[in-house]
Write a structure and sequence with these properties.
The complex is a heterodimer. Chain A is α+β, with helices and mostly antiparallel strands. Chain A is built from 18 helices and 19 strands. The chains are: A alpha+beta, B mainly alpha.
């Protein structure tokens, strides 16, 4: 009976091979699926088992992990939740991370290459491995002021403040905001409830308007028209344009009126300076038709509009001019309407570039990466994207923006500080039954810029205020933020 | 062996020293001890534990127990196969390390939520190992010649059937754990009688088949090139089939059912050299399983969980789902001993020892473990080939194949190759019955391999055949 025994031995080997084949399928082919399955808590537990790094700004901790007494060893905390939520994002065991928690995850969880040396030394010294810390460029005073300005009035909107010379983001808020703590709860029901509530909130709270939402820039876009005009060398601030209260868009019968149907000043013509100050649509429609589509498009691109790879390190939605097919569309685009759509961050970049002698700096949020001992591992170097205008044009634009600011209503102006600015009031929606989005972009001090801001308030901040303008609603907010950035008492 | 003059009656002129293999066995045992110590060190390092005095005692107990086992083999079965005991020692040691690792996880979990510390399983398993090795030595000492076992064939068979059927007949409160009625639980001590029944039934069937071999080899019809037995000779097979289907339905355990019937079929095949028995057996087993699937809800649930464990992840599919997650997270290299979360799988220390090992040791570790099992099984089958008597051949084949089929159902079940069973991984899983029973099994295998490898003059004399089998002899009375 040796033959059957030999065959049985072969069968046993076949069985073992079958097992090995199946184990290979489970542990190699399907391994990724199983590892990343949301119901598989192993990766999550391993991540929570080590201390995730903290996020801080100006010495103030805005997100940190503290020991907890449950299965997940650390609890994520957001001490000033709503103020910083658009930046920190949330860190949910069920819904994953967002904001910096996602974009800077490799630093916070310690897997980033820049923390490699630290990891090795952790291994050797037997210290608990932990993530790296992120230090933000944010100035807590600016951030708090910007948040208070928007939220105290119940506005839906966003404020961005940049340091023009470097691109450091000094403040970035989005309102209404939310508290990420609910989504960091270790109790699944609490987390699910928070998720349901936050997603149902009206207006939406989870989106960071500063970088994820795009709005028609309205008259603030006229800065780009002027930049294009001055850069062409064919125009000066004193070049004359029509002062008519309304013109017909080229090749159509559609009228394009000035705001309130007013003439542009007292004369037959208005200078470019006056047209910008009074924000005359007719003059800019004429200018745009003279400049042509490529000049406007090139100038917009030079300021960064249309670039798709901007990240701070969160991904920034690309701003756009939309398709411009004819002169009529160009004329509407030139006053920041038609399909033009800018993020508040992009609009801040435009004024920051003017403040910086025409040089566009890449905006960034992460100042430093630190190891767990708070020793600096790496510091972000400012990155120049390119030149939008030459320094002469930038000087002229600044002078024209100073002229603007000085003509605006005196709402919250700061004594002893000269601001250079432009307001915007942009129609949106199908008809005139919703108030316009209002903008205020500017920088200060005009002679030595320290901060550039963009303020956007959705729908004029009040559904009934159909007459809302950037000068009335947005400008005081922008000035308050500038005041905070310059360290001036209110 | 070839050089030995084995003419009957001729004493070797110069007794050439025969290699017993005991030296190799000792070296391999030491190697297994080194591997196990290394594994323990990794667990302690990854779990940031200090080596406690208690753990050192456990380590010394392990070394002591296998030293005793080695000397028992030297004394009672000096020519036994040298690879089997070290394989067992390695598997048992790795099992102890993993049980200790899961103890640490349970303790940490209990401390975190403020529960009293859970029962420590390591010391119990060490105790069971001691009991198992005591039985191992006892079997080697009592069973000096495996052929004598065939005298007790029917006693073994009866005891085996009783043990196999007992949990099914007892109330669920005593016998049911985790959906399968496999246990006899009295107080804190639980026994799975099926583990012992397995060995007793193998002894019975091996003896029975040797005695009644003609019955199964009588030619019936030829069909598809195979000779099929006469229908009237199918009786014993149908009895075994009924028993195994009964186990499947009443005890709700595919594992024991498959194991029992598989062993019977393989022994029949080995005894008769007829493939037709396998064909008939597998056909009626499949038929029975299909009928059971149609008739019984719990069998259907098992199959549905097998087909898609994630359909009801938080219910019936949780255990196998977690096991697959563990295996997947471990991947090729594993997370490292002590660095994974095998404790997330319910029964990680017993039925799902596979996923615990697979998560922390990876595919590489599991492959190594499978190779160790394969070494054990093939050495057992090799003894079956080498031993001279039919009963020994059948017994060694049955015992070796029992281990093979058991690891197949357990590993296949935990990795979703076949529906889940309630069996344990021999020597690796926590569980007294399995460990003790398998030590008895290994002792029998060593006994047979000793008979196969010993020089002829050292082999025990063949016992006289039982009266019933003895050829009739005419004896003349002296005048």
């Amino acid at each position: 009976m040796n033959t059957p025994v030999r065959r049985i031995a072969i069968a046993v080997m076949a069985m073992v091979l079958l097992l090995l084949g199946n184990l290979t399928y489970v542990q190699v082919v399907k391994a990724g699926d199983y590892r990343d399955d949301s119901r598989n808590k192993r990766v999550l537990l391993a991540e929570y088992a080590r201390k995730r790094g903290q996020i801080s700004a100006g010495g103030q901790v805005v997100a940190s992990s503290v020991p907890s007494d449950d299965e997940l060893k650390y609890q994520r905390q957001y001490p000033d939740g709503p103020v910083y939520a658009p930046l920190t994002g949330y860190y949910s065991t069920i819904y994953g991370p967002s904001g910096l928690e996602r974009a800077a995850d490799s630093i916070l969880n310690g897997s980033d290459d820049r923390l490699f040396v630290r990891r090795v030394s952790d291994l050797v010294t037997g210290r608990d491995p932990s993530g790296g810390n992120v230090v933000l460029t944010i100035d807590p005073e600016v951030q708090q002021a910007a948040y208070d300005q928007l939220s105290s009035k119940g506005y839906t909107g966003s404020i961005v403040a940049l340091r023009p010379q470097t691109g450091e983001i000094l403040g970035m808020v989005s309102t209404p905001s939310y508290d990420p703590s609910g989504l960091a709860s270790h109790r699944a029901e609490e987390q699910k409830q928070a998720w349901t509530d936050l997603n149902a909130a009206k207006p939406p709270v989870l989106s960071n308007r500063a970088i994820s939402e795009r709005y028609p820039p309205g008259s603030t876009f006229k800065l780009i028209d002027v930049a294009a005009a001055l850069s062409s060398g064919r125009y000066t601030p004193d070049s004359p344009f029509t002062a008519a209260p309304s013109i017909t868009l080229e090749g159509t019968r559609t009228p394009l009126p000035n705001f309130g149907g007013n003439r542009c000043g007292g004369g037959e013509t208005a200078t470019l300076r006056e047209a910008l100050q009074r924000s005359c649509n007719t003059a800019f429609a004429e200018l745009a038709a003279q400049l042509g589509t490529p000049a406007i498009q090139d100038q917009a691109a030079a300021f960064g509009i249309g670039s798709t790879d901007l990240s701070i390190p969160m991904k920034v939605a690309p701003s756009t001019l939309g398709d411009i097919e004819n002169t009529a569309q160009l004329q509407q685009s030139s006053i920041g309407q038609a399909s033009v759509a800018l993020t508040p961050l992009q609009n801040a970049m435009v004024v920051a570039a003017i403040a910086n002698g025409g040089e566009v700096m890449a905006p960034y949020l992460i100042q430093q990466i630190q190891d767990q001992e708070l020793d600096t591992v790496s510091t972000t170097e400012p990155d120049r994207i390119g030149s939008a205008v030459n320094s002469g044009v930038a000087r002229t634009l600044t002078e024209m923006m100073v002229n603007n600011e000085n003509s605006y209503a005196n709402l919250g102006k700061i004594s002893g500080v000269q601001i250079a600015a432009k307001t915007g009031t942009a129609q949106h929606g199908a008809d005139d039954s919703v108030p316009p989005h209002v903008w205020y972009v500017g920088f200060a001090p005009a002679e030595d810029p320290q901060v550039a801001v963009a303020v956007l308030v959705e729908s004029g901040g009040d559904p009934n205020n159909l007459e809302a303008t950037g000068g009335q609603v947005a400008a005081p907010l922008g000035r308050a933020v500038i005041r905070a950035a310059l360290g001036k008492a209110p | 062996m070839a050089a030995v003059d084995d003419r009957p009656g001729a004493a070797p002129a110069t007794p050439a020293p025969l290699p017993t293999g005991r030296g190799i066995e000792l070296v391999l045992l030491a190697f297994a001890a080194v591997l196990v110590t290394g594994a323990l060190g990794l667990v302690e390092a990854n779990q940031e534990q200090q080596l406690t005095q208690a753990l050192i005692w456990v380590g010394l107990a392990y070394l002591g127990l296998f030293t005793i086992a080695h000397f028992a083999v030297r004394r009672f079965a000096p020519y036994a196969d040298p690879l089997i005991l070290p394989s067992v020692a390695l598997l048992n040691g790795l099992g102890l390390v993993m049980i200790h690792r899961l103890d640490l996880a349970e303790l940490a979990q209990a401390t975190a939520v403020g529960d009293p510390p859970p029962t420590e399983l390591l010391s119990r398993q060490i105790a069971w190992t001691a009991v198992g090795l005591a039985l191992f030595v006892a079997v080697l000492w009592l069973v000096r010649d495996h052929r004598k076992l065939s005298r007790y064939a029917f006693t073994c068979g009866l005891a085996g059937i009783v043990l196999l059927a007992l949990p099914g007949l007892l109330p669920a409160s005593i016998s049911e754990v985790n959906g399968a009625k496999l246990w006899i639980r009295i107080g804190p001590v639980g026994i799975q009688p099926g583990e012992f029944a397995k060995i007793l039934l193998i002894v019975f069937f091996a003896a029975f088949l040797v005695q009644k071999r003609e019955l199964f080899t009588t030619a019936g019809r030829k069909f598809l090139g195979m000779e099929f037995p006469r229908p009237r000779d199918l009786g014993p097979l149908l009895l075994a089939w009924g028993l195994s289907i009964g186990v499947l339905v009443i005890e709700r355990d595919l594992g024991s059912s498959l194991l029992f019937f598989g062993i019977v079929l393989v022994l029949l095949y080995a005894a008769t050299e007829r493939v037709s028995w396998l064909v008939i057996g597998l056909t009626i087993f499949m038929g029975g399983a299909l009928i059971a699937y149609q008739l019984f809800g719990h069998v259907r649930v098992r199959v549905q969980v097998w087909l898609d464990p994630f359909a009801d992840f938080n219910g019936t599919g949780f255990q196998i789902g977690q096991a697959l997650f563990g295996l997947g997270t471990g991947g090729v290299g594993g997370t490292g001993l002590g660095a994974g979360r095998p404790d997330l799988v319910p029964f990680a220390y017993s039925d799902f020892m596979l996923s615990s090992l697979g998560e922390e040791l990876g595919l590489i570790g599991l492959s190594a473990i499978l190779v160790v099992y394969l070494v054990m099984i093939t050495r057992g089958l090799r003894s079956a080939l080498a031993v001279r008597d039919s009963f020994g051949k059948l017994l060694a084949t049955g015992l070796s194949f029992a281990i093979a089929l058991q690891i197949f159902t357990v590993i296949g079940g935990a990795s979703k190759l076949i529906p889940l069973t309630g069996l344990t991984l021999p020597f690796l899983s926590y569980g007294g019955s399995s460990l003790v029973a398998n030590y008895a099994l290994v002792a029998l295998l060593l006994r047979i391999s000793n008979a196969a490898r010993a020089p002829l003059n050292r082999r025990p004399a063949a016992p006289l055949p039982p009266i019933a089998e003895a050829g009739t002899e005419l004896v003349e009375r002296p005048k």
